[in-house]
Amino acid sequence: MNIEVWIAYIGTVLILMSIPGPSQLLMLSNSIGNGFRRSVATAAGDLSANFLQMSVASVGLVSVIQKSREFFVILKWAGVAYLAYLGFMQIVTRVDSQLQQKRNKRSIKSLYWQGFITSAANPKAVIFFAALFPQFINPTAPLISQFAVLSSTYIVMDAIFLCCYGKFAEWIGNKLRSSVGRYLNQISGSFLIGAAILLSLKNVETK
C-alpha cells in the first residue's frame, strides 16, 4: 500500500469518526462515572468488537451476515435495551458522598463488556468495513498485508478518539464535581440513554 492511498484512508476515517456514535457516548458516560483509567476497559471492549467485525469482513463472510437480518435485529435491540437500562439505573441512583461514589464504580470486566456489546450490536459494522476497505485496496498486491494495515490504522485511530473523549469527560467531571457532583450520575446516565437512542437508529437493512 503506497503512502498516498494510506493518507487518503486516514482522511476518510477522520471524517467518519468526527460524528459521535454510541461508543463515544458510552465512553463519555463511563469516564464521568468511573474515571478515565477505568474507562479504558470500555475502549478495549469496543476495539475488540471492531477487530472481530473487520476479521469477518476480510474473510468474505459478508453474504452470510446479509442473510442474518433477524439475528442482527435481535442483537441490536438487545444492545439498545441494555444501554437504556444502564442509563436509567444510573439516573435513579443517588450519590450523596464520595464513599458511595466509589462503591458505585463498575468493575473493569463490566466496563469492558459494555464497550464490546455496544460496538458488536451495531448491525451494519461488518458491512461498513466490507464496503470501506476495498476502496483502498490494490487487488494485484498481497491482500492480507493491506487488510492488516487498514485494520490496525482504524483501530489506532478509534482508540485515540475514544481516549480523547474519555479524558475530556473526566476533565469536565472533575470540574463539575464540586458544584454539581450530585448530578453527575444523571449526566452519565443521560449519555448512556443517548447511546441507546443512536444505536436504535442504526439501520439493519443491508441493501
Describe this structure in words.
The protein has 207 residues and is mainly α. It has one domain. Helix content is 78%, strand content 0%. The chain has helices at 3-17, 22-34, 36-58, 62-66, 69-92, 98-103, 108-120, 125-132, 143-180, 184-200. Helix 2 (22-34) runs antiparallel to helix 7 (108-120) and helix 2 packs across helix 9. The protein is globular, with a radius of gyration of 18 Å. Mean pLDDT is 76; it is low at 96-103.
Fraction of residues in β-strands: under 5%
Main sheet, how many strands, which sense, barrel?
Answer: none
Residue runs with pLDDT of under 50 for 5 or more positions: 96-103
Please give the alpha-carbon distance between the first and last residues.
Answer: 30 Å
How many H/I helices?
Answer: 10
Radius of gyration: 18 Å
Shape: globular
* Count of individual beta strands: 0
Percent of residues in helical segments?
over 70%
Structurally, the number of domains stands at 1
Mean pLDDT: 76
Q: Which structural class is indicated by helix and strand composition?
A: mainly alpha
Order of helices and strands: HHHHHHHHHH
List keywords for this structure.
globular, 207 residues, 0% strand, mainly alpha
In short:
With 207 residues, the chain is an all-alpha fold. It has helices at residues 3-17, 22-34, 36-58, 62-66, 69-92, 98-103, 108-120, 125-132, 143-180, 184-200.
Task: Write the topology of this structure.
Elements: H1 3-17, H2 22-34, H3 36-58, H4 62-66, H5 69-92, H6 98-103, H7 108-120, H8 125-132, H9 143-180, H10 184-200
